[in-house]
Sequence to fold (132 residues):
Amino acid sequence: MTRPEVTREEMLKVLSEVTSAADAEGAVDQRDEEVIQTIRNLIENNDKLREALESMVNQFAYVGQDENGPTLLEIGYSAVREAFEALGWQSPKPIPERKCQAEGCKKEATCGTPTKDGYKRLCGSHYNEVNK
Fold:
């Protein structure tokens, strides 16, 4: 079961609503304030953890291909499967940012090179065409 993606702002909003309701009832003491601050710190660090997990998945997940372009697949390492779940991603996960920038190409871009139209990320075939 995958978890829905929750933004940092949504988490902080919920925390703020809960603490405001508890404070209005006079139910917040010093220990609660420490717990609330710990939760805030965890939420702040969530972005760093998400970036680290995404980086790990991008490095170790299998790159596949579907009709729209390159995808990440959660096959192989159990850590990759767990990271997909923690990130709330479905497999295969489209990665359009890694698609070859040659018009009409749907392969994974594995090379980068200057072209007459500026710098482009290209698949091996198109890289070779540009650099003949």
About this structure: Residues 99-132 form one domain. The mean pLDDT is 82.
